[in-house]
Amino acid sequence: MNKGFRAIASACACWLVVLCFVVSPAAEGASAAADSGLPAKERADSSGENEEIVVYPRSFFDTYRPVNALDMVQQLPGFRLIEAADKRGFGGNAGNVLIDGERPSSKQDRLSQLLSRIPAGRVEQVEVVRGDTGSLTAGGQSVVANVVLRDAGRASWAWSALIEQDTDSGGPEPGGSLSLVVPRGDSRYAAGVEARHMFFGNVADERLEVGGVLAELRDDTERMQGNDYSGNFSSETDWGSLVSRFNSRLDYQTFNFFERSQRTPQGIDQAPFVVDRHADWQEYELELGGDLQWQASKDSDVKGILVFNREWEDRTSGLKRESDALSIRRQLADRQTRRAESIARIEVDWAGWEAHYLEFDLETALNVLDNQLEFAVDDGNGFHPVPVPGADSRVEEWRGDVQISDAWQIDDWTLEPALGAEVSRISQSGPDGQERSFFFLKPSLTVVHAPVSERQTRLNLRRSVAQLDFRDFVSATNFGDDEINFGNPSLKPQNTWVAELAHERRFGEVGVATAKLFYNYVRDLQDRLPLDGRDVPGNIGDGQRWGMELEATLPVDPVGLEDARLDMDLRWQDSSVEDPVTQRDRPFSGESKFRINTKLRQDVIVAQAAWGLELFYQDAVTRYELDELDVRDDGVDLGFFIETTRFMQTKVRLAAQNLLGRSFERDRRVFADSRLDGETAFREVRDFRRGRSLILSLSGNF
After folding, report:
1. CB-based contacts of 299: which residues, under 8 Å, 6+ apart?
2. CA dihedral of residues 132, 133, 136, 137 (deg, nearest 10)
3. Would you list the domain boundaries of the chain?
4. Within 10 Å of residue 679's Cβ, how many Cβ atoms?
5. Rg of the Cα trace of the chain?
6. Among 61, 520, 613, 641, which is 20 to 30 Å from 402 by CA?
7. Could you give the 3-state DSSP secondary structure of residue 29?
8. Is the pTM higher than 0.85?
9. Residue 297: which residues within 8 A CB-CB, separation 6 or more?
10. What is the DSSP string of 145-173?
11. 429-485, pLDDT tens digit by residue?
12. Does domain 37-150 have CATH number 3.30.379.10?
């Protein structure tokens, strides 16, 4: 099925490219001649018209009947919301949406959550800035949406409620949120709460092969449920040339997991047995952030930012194997993890040089992880502790980052050169602890050519440094695969030289297509590394990644669906790195070659309703370890939704997920010594199925 789907998807991609880049010029001409009412494509600034900005006024979104700013951003043609990723510090961790030209002084409060708290009536317009983002706090994003707010004048509430029912297992699962924005003179205060109960019920069939012969059949059932609660508060005060902002968020999560595996050996005189696995954990997270922005003059702006984040996680997990014919074996692990991040940042902007916009950034950050693990085993004579190397440890990273950049406008060209540098020091306590220092130069160059607003070409060259996951430094239990995941105190930050070339075409009111070619040269690629006979996270050398991506929003009126659009994101890539075990080239671990994410939506304006289909597919991914090959294929995900706003200006939405009953397949081959020998010790083939679900949600504001 997957090969056939891949062929169909590839053919669709080829036709889509033809449609976007061959047919679109004719569509441009026709729409211009007919004055079809494109969104405004200019904004007055010091240099006159800016072809990099597309302005979507509030009226553009009337067709979609939004109730909050998130609904509006999700309907921007050719735009895909990117949440902030877990990258280094604050500057490089931005998503691609700003609010009134500013980025919230927060890392953990997701953009989608922030936007869902803003009633649609408070949005004046949404600007899509393509390429020339030098005057915006965009964190290196090449396309940014800026949500421009109007004066609220009065307090406004936003609310949502949902209930999810898993049709194949348990439920229902309720959830909801309530938020308030209150203007008071020159200040604005906002607060909100969210709560959600979650339940997942899954089943799986698995077979164990030893020496190519079926050795065991497994029938697995698992259940996980939990609760997620959060509260937030923010404020903003304008004193003329000085603006202060404050953000805070507190999260609490609690979950419990249980899996029962009924196992039937296929050998003679081997009795069936049961393996139970459980886990219980709770997590608190607190984030405090704020900034102070000073308009020093008409040409200069200074902003200071402070962010503090802390997480507490306690997890208890266990494994029990028993039968009438086998002795009981139990394993128990108790893990406590404490994480903290503190960031201080200064941004200085200056526009006093004609046709230039200069920015100077200075940032320092401290990241800390404390990990404690107690592991015990009971072979029938009571629990006894088992020491795990690298389990109890403290990891600290101090980092300093400086950058100067310029946005230089030359007619219909924009040049954005930047030069940055980073110094860091990582230390780890414990028997294998060590201290190391790193220095990276981080240059970048963006070139934008926009002769008219309907066409734009962007070239981006930069060096990026990845954020290390401190959990890779310490060891942890993995009862799912019945093994220990050892940490590695010698990890280095992976860094990448990136080259991207993108061309964008706009046609009609919603037609947008962007084709991108990319090449990455990755140094110190982080993967699985054989070290002292163990398989650990490590840097395996230098590698390359290359590919192409097509993002498009296309009107589908010509095929008979009035007021309908198709949003599509296609990506193909390949990669190469020398395998540390076989010494032969192979793709990067855990990355798929092909991905398609598409959504068809039709708005039935007379009925004040809309319906649509959503589809996601990606190729199987392979993970390479010292003595293991792990191949996972998640199949095709198909969903359907229908929504309406005809009842009291409330959006009522019914969504059906996983209509095809997708199968998550895993093929795990464990070798006798290493993958180099090629002798398989055993093989586990697992067919994991997650149930279909229905989600009824309501949202509105007042």
Report:
1. 350, 351, 352
2. -160
3. 37-150
4. 11
5. 27
6. 520
7. helix
8. yes
9. 352
10. EEEEEPP--S-EEEEEEEEEEETTS---E
11. 877 778 999 999 999 999 999 888 888 999 999 999 988 888 888 888 888 888 888
12. no
